[in-house]
Amino acid sequence: SLAGKTALITGSTSGIGLAYAKALAGEGANVVINGFGDKDAIEKERQGLETLSGAKALYSGHDLTKVDQIEAMMKDAADTFGGVDILINNAGMQHVAPVEEFPLDKWDLIIALNLNAAFHTTRLALPWMKDRKWGRIIQTASAHSLVASPYKSAYVTAKHGLAGFTKTVALEVATFGITANCISPGYVWTPLVENQIPDTMKARGMTREQVMNDVLLAGQPTKQFVTAEQVAATALYLCSDAAAQVTGANLSIDGGWTAQ
Ligand code: NAD
């Protein structure tokens, strides 16, 4: 059980992040959720999380592309729960375009959210974890932290960076009972994947069906999408005592994609 622990999950109003929040709240952890979306829908999710085990759920909707807002979110968590025991850096965005046409603002946003935000949350969470001699830092990296695909330069750059950052943190905190690991999914059926289909159709001159079968699932040998619940189950494993010696690892959940 994770009762008495607090988990902060960035980008948890949707997709994989929401699945992590449900899994952790179900095990008794207090959760801090973050991300954008409809106010009423988010409040409903927050209340739903509190019914899973009776632990508390706090919503902190700051924009994690901005350092002062990351600091405000971490302060919200500390003010309510004391600190963060389980940090899941999950918020992320994608943009699909050739390098020479890649919009400069999109490059900066993707690096800020998918990479820099994890540095800031980690540096702010570590003092509490070190004091308590226990902590779990989990990144939703990606198969794109290990291999590349064309037209996703900012995303692949950020995720490779995140993988390197995680190994470094794992070494720095190895004697403090704190682990740091990446989970690297292949294609998970979430709004992030659905929303990139139109741009991929344009970039490659394909139909929707061709993008689904010939691009998304082309490299996934099982020919099935990963589910958000399967990713969340791996995070629960990483939080367990069984995973106390798993640190600095990059766990693939990609239907065999990166085995090729
Ligand atoms: P999603 O779009 O469903 O969820 C993204 C979350 O991030 C949402 O809650 C959104 O509101 C939040 N967010 C976006 N911009 C933000 C910002 N500036 N500040 C704070 N929150 C912000 O996406 P998802 O598919 O669940 O992706 C979650 C993570 O998983 C991402 O890091 C993504 O790169 C990674 N991932 C996804 C897949 C996949 O196939 N879906 C595969 C590998 C890795």
Automatic annotation (TrEMBL):
Residue spans crossing the bilayer: none
UniProt keyword DNA-binding present: no
This enzyme's EC code(s): 1.1.1.30
Keyword annotations of the record: Oxidoreductase
Any GO MF annotation of the entry: 3-hydroxybutyrate dehydrogenase activity
Protein origin, superkingdom: Bacteria
PROSITE patterns: ADH_SHORT (PS00061)
Key word Electron transport present: no
Matching Gene3D superfamilies: NAD(P)-binding Rossmann-like Domain
Entries under NCBIfam families matching the protein: PHB_DH (TIGR01963), PRK12429.1 (NF009093)
Family designation: Belongs to the short-chain dehydrogenases/reductases (SDR) family.
Record's protein name: 3-hydroxybutyrate dehydrogenase
Native species: Sphingobium naphthae
